[in-house]
# Entry
Amino acid sequence: MSELVEIEIFDNPRSERDYCITIRCPEFTSLCPKTGQPDFGEIVIEYCPDKSCIELKSVKFYMQSYRNKGIFYESLTNDILDDLKDICKPRWMKVTSRFTPRGGITTEVVAEYKSRK
# Structure
């Protein structure tokens, strides 16, 4: 997990039901580990909560912790999925990262988790 950023959770008010929560972070930034230049993109988190839901203010601070971090798209997408699923233990979660063009190429990375319950 990113240093010093705590992701908060709260009790799912309707844990008996399957439903989907979508969190969009349209102004995500990190650094290219090769060039040190900023990468701009959108992170979309979709999940079906079990007993806990993710508190949005803490997600905002968590996402901001990547601003000065040199990391490849593939790593950050999987790191975000691992961090969030470890905290809230959802029934299902998917993290999609979409980055703006660099050299005429766009990149989208999708990582998914399914509970084994």
About this structure: The mean pLDDT is 94.
